[in-house]
Design goal:
This protein has 360 residues and is α+β, with helices and mostly antiparallel strands. It has 4 helices and 13 strands. The chain starts with 6 loop residues before the first strand and ends in a 24-residue tail after the last strand.
């Protein structure tokens, strides 16, 4: 029997965004046009051509969080909640410096002292001024000694990742944003229910760069790696675990799943998300990183950003663009198949608003 695609309406309940399902709760089938594609970004004539791949992730249902039987489970990973996710595209790999530098370095008046004649990356952006603010000069080398070409961009704040998505959306005419926490876990699990999303006869080393396998001769404490050098998951996504942690859209709320479970529709929380606010802290990061222990790669593991991530920034006020000596975080983008109530959401962070904050 064929299922009809459910109609959905967005509502705000208990301080978080939920899309409430109406009618048949069966998962929506992706449209015929929902296929993998490559996004090509225009650059100056003599600058390298930059592109990235987007993977079509079908909509569906999954159990978010970890079960009480997981020995490494933390309190904020439960209670588990049944979630329904609409189809979307997700970047095949984490955003690399190749991509981020088009936003960060090209046509950026904030980079004081840069010599455009000696730096091809700073030649005039062919797309022209885009009215999206750009990062200031980092306090230290933003790569922290890791490789740059084709390696994940690192150490940017949640604000910077949000602004990149805003810039990318204007640059391409498509709706790009950070993944919600629910979208991230759904995509990472790719239909699996095990803690690491792999089969019993497989090893996590085949899928992730982490503490046990990331060190090399130059970086004895570990380092980042070029994307797509390990196995992809069942959806065709690479490095969802390890390499670098990934920013999610959501403001971090410790009892998020309890709140989601309190507002179910037909047994599901549909497209749940806690919208970020004007505050710099806290936001959700997922996936573990190249310095993580194996248990930090569990798909249900949640990390909340905190002010300590900038404790070595001596500037006053501290940067809203860059973390300091926190080289373990990056991000990837998603693009919903259908517009949603998150479209047009931009970062509202300003330097003066640096208080510790959590949603009540």
């Amino acid at each position: 029997m064929k299922h009809r695609i459910p109609l959905c309406a967005a509502v705000v309940l208990g301080g978080f965004l939920v899309a409430a399902a109406v009618g048949d709760p069966a998962p929506a089938k992706p449209a015929a046009t929902h296929m993998n594609y490559t996004e090509k970004l225009a650059t100056a004539e003599d600058a390298p051509k930059v592109s990235f791949d987007m993977v079509a992730v079908p909509g569906g249902e999954f159990l978010m969080g970890s079960p009480p039987t997981d020995p490494d489970r933390k309190p904020d990973e439960g209670p588990q909640v049944k979630v329904k996710v609409k189809p979307f595209w997700m970047a095949k790999t984490e955003i690399s410096w190749d991509e981020f530098d088009l936003y960060f370095r090209l046509n950026n008046a904030q980079l004081e002292g840069a010599d455009a004649a000696k730096d091809p990356a700073k030649k005039v952006d062919p797309a022209g001024p885009d009215a999206v603010s750009k990062p200031t000069m980092p306090y230290v080398d933003e790569t922290y000694g890791h490789e740059r070409d084709k390696h994940p961009a690192i150490c940017m704040t949640h604000h910077a990742a949000m602004k990149y998505c805003e810039w990318l959306s204007k640059r391409t005419g498509k709706y790009y944003r950070l993944p919600t926490e629910a979208e991230w876990e759904y995509a990472a699990r790719a239909g699996t229910t095990t803690p690491y999303g792999i089969k019993k006869d497989e090893k996590i080393d085949e899928y992730a760069w982490y503490k046990a396998n990331s060190p090399d001769e130059t970086h004895p404490r570990g380092t980042t790696y070029e994307g797509a050098k390990k196995k992809p998951n069942a959806f065709g996504l690479y490095d969802m675990q390890g390499n670098v942690m990934e920013w999610c859209l959501d403001h971090y709320v410790a009892d998020a799943y309890t709140r989601f479970n309190a507002n179910l529709k037909d047994g599901f929380s549909v497209g749940p998300a806690f919208k970020p606010t004007e505050n710099k802290w806290f936001h959700v990061a997922r996936g573990g990183h190249f310095k993580s222990e194996e248990k930090g790669l569990r798909l249900a593991a949640r990390v909340a950003s905190e002010k300590a991530w900038m404790r070595q920034d001596p500037q006053e006020p501290q940067s809203i663009w860059w973390l300091t000596t926190f080289d373990i975080i990056g991000f990837r983008v998603v693009r919903p198949v259908e517009d949603d109530d998150l479209k047009g959401l931009t970062s509202k962070v300003v330097k003066e608003n640096d208080q510790i904050f959590s949603i009540k």
